[in-house]
Amino acid sequence: MTDIYSYIFNFGNIVLGILFAALPFLVLGVSASVILQHFIGRERVLRFYGQSFLQNYLVSTSAGFLFPVCECGIVPIARRLIAQGVPVSGAVMFLLSAPVLNPITLGATMAAFPADNLVWIMRLCISQLLTLGIGWIFQAWVDEKGTPLPLLNTLHHEYDCHHESVLAPRFAKILYQGYQEFIDVFRYVVYGALLTAFLQMVIPRGFLSIVTDYPFLGILAFMLLAGLLSVCSSVDAFVILPFANHAPLSALLAFLNFGPLIDVKNIMLFKAYFSKKFTVWYFGAIIVGVLSLTSIIMLGWPGSDIQFKN
Amino acid sequence: MSIKNVLHKIEPYIVLALTLKFFWIVLSGDLDKFVHPRLHTLVIFGWTILLTMIICAVALQRKNTHSHRSLFSSFAEKTAISLLILTPSSTMMPHANTQMITRTLDGQIQEVPQGAESFSFGDWHAYFNLGQPSPALAGTSVTVTGLVMNVSPDKKRADVTRLVITCCTADAYLSFFPLYFPDKLEVLEREWYEIKGVWDFTPTRGWFISVTSLKEISEPKNPYVYP
């Protein structure tokens, strides 16, 4: 009986831990989204973007560097960018680069692996290759060809509702809009946290032992672990640190590059913000991209796929 | 007013209750049990913004009496959040999936640092994670507090453990050091102990603590290790 209580309390603690750590990032993202709409405006944002892929790449990655929020926070911002008319490839490149390129994530990776600069450099390289590759696909497919791709889900506050009092001051109205945007995705984060905690309680992590015998399955296992743990990208390097002595570099890099882009709560967030078709294409491209790049490291770089020491 | 709209109407109050639970945990000093201390400032800042937004929502939402969500979805979500609000902030116990870290103890040899005798569990955890312990570690005195688990039937072997949190409770994993008792000792499973002994090494056992004395203690204020 004690064990059942212990499991229930652990489950509650894990869910609360995820919510306490993740919601502030979502709030910061929603705040940035509302600020973009009310204080920066469509024209000013669009002025930075142009027809050139390289220009859009540089703008998106610079924005990713300047917004030190992790994967929960960038989703509302990316959605706002698309809604304001930014090219889809630009928003996609922002989504792909921001969680890894931001100084907090890079600093944490350097701090977690102080003896080997290879880890943060390779992480950054893979992230930028993914950004360029997937961004280029979205530019060629959506921006240039004009392939009809339903992008955005309609959020509750975008319905023709008139919830706010007309007498409320502007600042309060902006905060209220922020709340409405937050509450529209809050439930998805709650579902994501519940699902993550459940999966963590039932799936034994012993499956990670396959990395030593089957490196390719090891990459898949570490991608799965990253998706299940749903840990913030700014600290994931510390999370993977205990595995550093057991896992090949390719598997570590799969964890470090996959986790910030796809995890359970992120999938739930995308469900709220973006259309199903867009989400499937976006996540599909990431899975293929991370698998390909880390497999190249595993196969084509002699000596890199030995036991990595942190 | 329909049930659906009642549920919609109480939504900000439920989120407000969750926010107040968060601040209650902060004020009672228990935030460490959920989130790594280095994230506290950022987390509290974010929740403060959320609290401000919710206050605005509560103040401005009087005229809003309709919802676009299904009754089931709305009910399930509010029930889940309400149960979370009622969950007491207890210490997480190691469960099957947290027992996953076994050190390979290879890599560069790490010299025994100065003042190692006064190292805490967290310090030893960091030392063993750096690489291969120096042979000179054998014989060094060690005093650690932790949760004793995996007591063998003959009560001559056990593990002293602590959960390690790198971000939040979602990534908690178990760090442990093997204990060997020279004589049969009355040690209880899943109880907190202060353990005194010396580091020792044999090829079959690896590095372990040869226990000289142990004292049952109450759970420490901060039971986790934060690397």
Q: Your description of this structure?
A:
- The complex is a heterodimer of chains A (310) and B (227).
- Chain A is mostly helical and 310 residues long.
- Chain A contains 13 helices and no strands.
- Chain A is globular, with a radius of gyration of 20 Å.
- The C terminus of chain A is likely disordered.
- Chain B is an alpha/beta fold and 227 residues long.
- Chain B has 4 helices and 7 strands, in the order H-H-H-E-H-E-E-E-E-E-E.
- In chain B, helix 1 runs antiparallel to helix 2 and helix 1 runs parallel beside helix 3.
- The model of chain B has no long low-confidence stretch (mean pLDDT 83).
- The chains are: A mainly alpha (310), B alpha/beta (227).
Question: What labels describe this entry?
Answer:
heterodimer, A: 310 residues, mainly alpha, 13 helices, 72% helix, globular, disordered C terminus, B: 227 residues, five-stranded mixed barrel, two-stranded parallel sheet, 4 helices, 7 strands, 32% helix, elongated
Using the alpha-carbon principal axes, give the shape of chain A: globular
Largest interface (C-beta under 8 Å): A-B, 67 and 67 residues
H and E order of chain A: HHHHHHHHHHHHH
Major β-sheet of chain A, in short? none
Rounded mean pLDDT of chain B is 83
Instruction: Give the tally of β-strands of chain B.
Output: 7
Distance between the termini of chain B: 52 Å
Question: Summarize this, please?
Answer:
The complex is a heterodimer of chains A (310) and B (227). Chain A has helices spanning 2-40, 42-48, 53-66, 71-83, 88-101, 103-112, 117-144, 170-202, 215-229, 236-240, 249-258, 264-273, 276-300. By secondary structure, chain A is mostly helical.
Secondary structure: elements and pairs:
The complex is a heterodimer of chains A (310) and B (227).
Chain A: H1 2-40, H2 42-48, H3 53-66, H4 71-83, H5 88-101, H6 103-112, H7 117-144, H8 170-202, H9 215-229, H10 236-240, H11 249-258, H12 264-273, H13 276-300
Chain B: H1 3-27, H2 40-60, H3 71-86, E1 109-110, H4 121-130, E2 132-133, E3 141-149, E4 157-164, E5 173-180, E6 191-202, E7 206-216
Parallel strand pairs in B: 1-2, 5-7
Antiparallel strand pairs in B: 3-4, 3-6, 4-5, 6-7
